[in-house]
Amino acid sequence: MLKRPSILALAMIGAFLSVPARPQDEASRQLWDSQFLKKRAGAKTTAPPRKNPGYKRATPKNDVIDENTGEVVGVTIWRLRQSREADNKEARLLLQDDASGEGTEFTPERVEAESAFTAGDRVRLSIESPRDGYLYVIDREQYADGTSSDPYLIFPTLRNRNGGNAVKAGKVIELPARSAFRLKPMRADYSGELLTLIVTSQPLPDVKPGTSVLKLERELVDKWEQQWRSPIDRFDLSKDWGRSDNDQRHRLVVSGTVQSSTSAPANFWDSLSHHWQLSGMLQAYSALPFNITSGVTTIQGTAGRPIVNGEFIERNAGEGSDFFSLGLRVSRTFHLTDRVGLEALAEAFNITDRVNVVTRNTNFGPGAYPDNPSPTFGQPTAIGEPRSFQLGARLRF
User: What are the boundaries of each domain within the chain?
Assistant: First the structure.
C-alpha cells in the first residue's frame, strides 16, 4: 500500500500535428526509443567520453505558476534537429542513425507542449519530480475523432537506466537516457501524443519493465488516473464547480403484488383460481449528468473541458439519458402434500424493450463548442439489457 498520495500529471504534445496517410507496421509505436530501433555496426568502436548536452530555448517562456500550495511535476520537451555549423558544439548530441548506423549530430531545442511536430521528429524529455519516488511515463496517441490508442509504458524500460525508475526530489532526469524518442504515428488521423506521468512513493506492483515499450490495460490506467487525478485547477477549486456525478433529480420506483386466495380449493373453479401471485416493478429515473471533455489535458494533469470565451465550460455540463424499465412476475403454487409445495413462475424484464443508455462517449473533441463536436461524441458505448423472459420452479418443504 502506498504510504503517501501519488502525483499524476498529464501533458499533450503535437496537438496540431498533420501526418500524411501511409501504411504502418503492426509493431510500430508512436514514441520509439531510437536506441532500440537502430542497426548496430559489426565492428566495435571506442566512443569518446560523452559530455553532458547543453540546451537552448526555441519558444517563448510561459508564465510561472505559483506552486507553493501544491506539488507539480516539471516536464520539459526537447525537439532535436540536425546540428548546423553555427551551433554550439557543447550543445550537441551524437545519435546513431536508425537506417545507416552512422552517427549524426543533433542540437536539442526546448519547445512548448502546444508546438506542432511532424512524423519522424526526435524528442527528448526532461522530468523533475517534487519528491522522492518512482516515476512512470505512459504514452497514448490522440486522434482527430477524439479517441486514443491503447496506453503504452515508455518508462521505465530495461534499456533506460536498466529498468530503474527511482527519482530524487528536484533532480532532473532525461528520457531516454542515451538516445531519443521518435514520433511514428499508427493512424493517418493522428493529432498528438498524451503523456501521463505518475510519481509514486512505492513501485507499482502491476508494472514490470520490459526491454521495450509495454502495452498496458486501459482499465488499469483509467483506475490510476481516477485515483490520483486532481481538480481542473488545484489552486482554484471554484473552477471545478458543477453538478454532482450522482445528481439525479427524480427517481420513481413502484412495486406491488396481487395474490389470489390461498385456501384449500372447494370445487373445480377454486382449483384453477387459487394460489396465484402476480407482482411487478416499475422504475423511472431522470438523467444523470456527464462531464464533457475536449481530449486535451490541463497543466494540472486533469481532463480539459471545451473552452468558451476563454473559460472552461462547467463540470458535468452534459445531460445523459433517462431510464425506464417495467418488470412482471407471475407464479402459482401447487401443494403436493401438507408440507411440500411446488412453485412454478415466469418473469419478464424490460417488457417495453426500452433502450436504456448506460454510458456514452463524452469526448467532444477539439472543435468549437457547442457547434462542432467530433462525429462520435454522445454516441452510446453501453446499453442496458433488452427485453427478456425467464422460467423457473421452486420446491418448498
Answer: 7-229, 251-396
